[in-house]
Specification:
It is a single chain. Helix content is about 35%, strand content about 25%. The protein has about 400 residues and is of the alpha/beta class. The protein folds into two domains: about 280 residues, Zn peptidases (Aminopeptidase, 3-Layer(aba) Sandwich); about 110 residues, 2-Layer Sandwich (Alpha-Beta Plaits). The strands form four sheets. The chain has an eight-stranded mixed sheet, with helices on both faces. The chain has a four-stranded antiparallel sheet with strand order 10-12-8-13, covered by helices on one side. Helix 5 packs antiparallel against helix 6. The protein is elongated and about 80 Å long.
């Protein structure tokens, strides 16, 4: 039996067990950098396989080594993130979150499960591949500074040095069975904006005695939007969104201050830096010109994510072999952000998408929503595919 069929058979046999693992993880979600029970569970599953090269990194992360023949030939890393989101789950399922206000609404339970499954498959195939597989169970993808950056700083891409890294992420826009790839630029950088505008409150009927921070905030939001739309090169994707506005006055009360939170995203580092300068200068100018003051904080987040073209093309071809070329989807640029971007800045990387949608089963909700769920058939596909891609890449 050839290796592809062996992996497919192993993934199929493991599927019922892996579904239960995923449901356990889904029921017991933990927030970013608090994944203590999750990582203990993962470690126990790996130790059952006799894997002993396990190292703790970034407090709640793991680096796991599986060596084949000639382990120094090449090193391929596979990454799964483990953290959940601060969302109250609305699904009424047997595996609903037991931790009120915390939910695996981005599929990290699936990613972790698939990587455990890969460990189960590859630990039995060590005589059938040359090189080393490094499994990265990563904490804190959803929270700055990102667990990827911390693990890289602690040497996860070294000793042995990683030649290429693959990341698999669920995608509810794709039907189960479909796999999405994009070569080159794929996901945006992300920065968090925190703005406090201080004016002078008073009676709503006497605005001439006030410095109205509500009006100033409105002006600032509109002007900053125009800044992005007028100053950015039209061929460079940019997004500026304010999702939180607190002006705690009343129908007839002008408040003393207004608080804003937003995000800025783009795919060009030079424009990113210029936009930061323009936003700060513009906000200060508006506030000063209207008699107020502003504290404008930009928390620089993840860089843009770029898939190595040669690595991505190889893995797209290998995925076509595994799932069939009719199930391979070419992806568009996506303005969401991912801390896997740090890996893509440090070594050859390929971040691809695993379809999880099933309209017939009513599984259509997007990530980061209270009703997000997956067609669990994706677990068997994702596990086998990742194991196959890793072994194929070792041979290149």
């Amino acid at each position: 039996m050839d290796l592809q069929n062996k992996i497919k058979r192993a993934a199929k046999e493991l599927a019922p067990e892996l579904v239960q693992i995923r449901r356990h993880l889904h029921s017991n979600p933990e927030l970013s950098f608090q994944e203590y029970n999750t990582v203990a569970f993962v470690r126990s599953e790996l130790e059952k396989l006799g894997i002993n090269q396990i190292k703790s990194l970034a407090k709640t992360g793991l680096e796991v080594i599986i060596e084949g023949k000639n382990p120094n030939k090449k090193v391929v890393a596979l990454r799964a993130d483990m953290d959940a989101l601060p969302i109250i789950e609305a699904n009424e399922v047997s595996y609903k979150s037991k931790n009120t206000g915390v939910m695996h609404a981005c599929g990290h339970d699936v990613h972790t499960t698939c990587l455990i499954g890969v460990a189960k498959i590859l630990s039995n195939e060590k005589e059938n591949f040359e090189g080393t597989i490094k499994l990265i169970f990563q904490p804190g993808e959803e929270k700055l500074p990102g667990g990827a950056s911390l693990m890289i700083a602690e040497g996860v891409l070294e000793n042995p040095n990683v030649n290429a890294i693959l990341g698999q992420h669920v995608m509810p826009l794709l039907p189960v069975g479909k796999i999405g790839f994009r070569s080159g630029l794929y996901m945006a950088s992300t920065d968090e904006l925190y703005v406090t505008i201080k004016g002078k409150g008073g009676h709503g009927a006497m605005p001439h005695l006030c410095i109205d921070p509500v009006v100033i905030a409105a002006q600032m939001i509109i002007t900053l939007q125009q800044l992005v739309s007028r100053q950015a090169n039209p061929i460079v994707p940019s997004v500026l969104s304010f999702g939180k506005v607190i002006a705690n006055g009343a129908t007839n009360v002008i408040p003393n201050e207004v608080y804003l939170e937003g995000t800025f995203r783009t795919l060009d580092e030079k424009w990113r830096e210029k936009a930061h300068e323009l936003m700060l200068r513009t906000a200060n100018s508006i506030a000063e010109g209207m008699g107020a003051s502003v504290a404008f904080e930009i928390r620089k987040g993840y860089p843009f994510l770029q898939n190595n073209p040669e690595l991505t093309d190889r893995n797209k071809k290998a995925a076509s072999e595994y799932v069939g070329s009719e199930n391979i989807i070419d992806l568009d640029i996506w303005m969401a952000a991912e801390d896997f971007a740090y890996f893509s800045q440090a070594t050859q990387a390929c971040f691809y998408r695993l379809g999880t949608r099933n309209e017939a089963k009513g599984i259509t909700s997007g990530v980061h929503t209270p009703t997000f769920d997956i067609d669990e058939d994706a677990i068997e596909i994702g596990t086998g595919l990742m194991a196959y891609l890793a072994i194929k890449e070792l041979g290149n």
